[in-house]
User: Fold these one by one.
Assistant:
Number 1:
Amino acid sequence: MSHIDAATVRSLIAANPDVLVVDVRTPAEFESAHIDGAINLPLDQVDAHLRRIVADAGGRMLLICQSGNRAERARSALSGAGLDDVAVLDGGMNAWIASGAPVNRGRARWPLERQVRLISGSIVLASVVASLWIPATVLIAAFIGAGLAFAAVTDTCAMGMLLARLPYNRTDGADVEAAIARLRRI
């Protein structure tokens, strides 16, 4: 089973506390709210350390992100590299929180998807208003629209990947070595 709903995840964690809960969101998103005992290993670090993760991981792994998209990308990469017992929390932290499941909360920060909506919407609005005086600036809005359509079709987001690298989204950063060490089962 590659996708599991929040109620099933709660039962799974309660029945088997050794389930590896890996949160692939940015460190700032993880700091805002995460499942107790989750390991923060941002998606870009999953890609960068794929071989080590597959070699070190023991037991069932449950991947979490904000809505499920990044976790699914991580699952595909891990499964493709030979790690079979990997599942994704369907709907991500949004579904977890909506189900009333317990959450460890820290400093509130905007999720990456919300940041993308703010930036893209602001750029489109500004370029349309500017086009009243400089008609060619409407092309900026067209470019952003094309980028959003491409992001939807390919299930990737260049703007989101860029925003994830900003200091605001990094906090002190994820300790990749500690995260990978926690994946090991003796």
Number 2:
Amino acid sequence: MELTSTEDVAAACQDDTIVMWAAQGMRPGIRAWAHGEAVAVASPDLNRRDRLTVRGPAGQAAVLVRRVLPELAPSYRVMAERDLAGELVGLLPGSGPVRPFEWMETATPPSPQDSGEEETGWLEERDAEVAALLAEAAPAAWAVPGLPGIRRWAGVRAADGSLVATAADAWSCPEVGFVAGVATVSALRGRGYGRRVCAFVFRSLIAAHGRVALVVDTDNRAAIGVYERLGMRLRPVAALAPFSAG
């Protein structure tokens, strides 16, 4: 059964944050389906990937993937919680390998002392400044100025006015705020600047969307620790490499 509204997707997935983020408010180009208790959402160019986000019992999810994948471009990657992704590898011939990473989310705003509002805020027309910081501190960042879906950047400034940390409101949707492009100047790491900019953005996006999420590499334990201290819950996820359903 194809789902045509945000309300249908929310009911089918029990308002799961990952699936609701994938649905992106059912903007043009998004498609969603349900089969039994399984749900799949096809999201083109979401966080720089064509994603087929799947949730539900493995057997039903595999049936759903096999049914919908022929309708999608070959660039789509299946994304699911890691246990489900591992089961799908055995049920979908030709799929894999599994690429693990971490999804993190919260609906609880960080406490005010974590926000650092006196030195943190949204940046206006500062793309060149943000790009320079990312080039030095996070050259492999998925979010960079100018990409579709990047709405705005927040930053922390040192006493001399220089930008020392940044984070983006990127690929958010009405039901879920999303954060990407988190970076701190290399020489100034460990001083809490990254925590401050994240706390500010988390609070802003929770106020606007009710919850906030991000993804982080599994081996980035320092960042995961920061996000956990800001109240985020970790959900291991994985993507399967593109494959043919034929």
Number 3:
Amino acid sequence: MLPESGSVLGVDVGWSTRQRSSAACRLDWDREGVRWIIRRFTADDADRRAGLLAVAGPHHLLAGAFDGPLRGDLEPIDSYRLAERRLSERPIRDAIGKLAQSNSGNGRLLNGATNACARIMLERGSLAPAAHQHAIHRFAIAEAFPNSFLGLMLVDPAPFKGGRGKRSDRYYLALAEDGTLARLLAHHLPHRLMEQNFGSVTNHDDRAALVCAITALGVASNDYTAVGDGDGWIILPPAAFIADWARPLVASWNQATPRAVVTSAS
């Protein structure tokens, strides 16, 4: 059970040193309500550090989730991980898109930028010790992937495969409009007023950072689905929020590779 009040951090990781393609979201709650703040920044070392520390502020963070390849030793991964293979298998890929490989050119850049963000937050301190089942570090850091996180909650992904803009934005808008994101937040933090509206978040990177913060909320409450192995676990929605079409696929991961995916619920 989550404490009466607290904070978690979500980070959408980018590697551009010129464009503000990274974003951090701190999600806070108390007995009355839930709220968040979001800030964008570049991958320039000084700007990245300033952005992350400004969002985190003086708050104790129960968990941090980062949108990029992340292993507990914070070393380069440079391999095609089990988590990536499972989330890129044909039924999932056809429905909601595939996950980039950590050993691709972009994958290596993203892994390096993710490690840099995680190091900043670990050096800052004030991260809670890890208490979730799939901990990769002694402190509560975890890997998020907003596209799969959102896509696995869609009742029917087919209408959102094409169209303008990024696929994850279409998923986000659909789940905001049908109330799924609000229900997920209420699942983790019941009987509280949402002081902001999911529909008010319009920037792609801001949306991704907010989804990462919700991922971190699942880690903090030990209520999530995970896929992976010793090379990293990607945190996905709680079992109750996985759409019916995806549940047999998630179950098949267990059958194909025992203990490669485990559902944990508080």
Number 4:
Amino acid sequence: MATRHLYLARHGAADAFGELTDIGRRQAGLLGERLAGVPVDAVWHSPLPRAAASANELARRLPDVPVTEAAELIDHVPYVPDVAETPPSWVGFFDGYDAAEAASGHRLAEALVARFAKVPDTTADVTRTDTHEVLVTHAYPIAWLVRHALDAPPVRWLGLNSSNTALTVIEYRDGLPPTIVMFNDMSHLPSDLRWTGFPKGMRP
């Protein structure tokens, strides 16, 4: 039985213009060092500069591993809840999202799941093997994949925050529900590089 191992990471810390900062580069490099012991087959990244730069920085520690852009990993709101299911603290967040924007975001979310949240691809004449893929993306797509793995209601992506370059690992096997191995793990980062990208009131 082959397993697809997805290593999900939010990009490194970025500035107000969406460019990776020196701190973000340090974070990405340390994540690459942590992943150097994993038999990584591919690094995929969001089209946005902060994710692309993070992917290339961590890939410097993963010789010969291909680094490729994946449109499905772009930052987007995966699901806009209706008024009845929206937690009070989130009501203002969705002001301005019209039906077309909500539908577009949800289509992206469905494409993300269809491409990555499944067992390894195979053909009849190829022996199926485990795959190990790193996805450098953003907090919302990570939250959506975690919610999907838990088979939770769509609204439950809200509040699943990820720190910059924190590691979330999900495994997919035939005939079994996805397994969340870890979520928002920052053990590769020193204390001064942890919790960036998290709302200050939510930092422990």
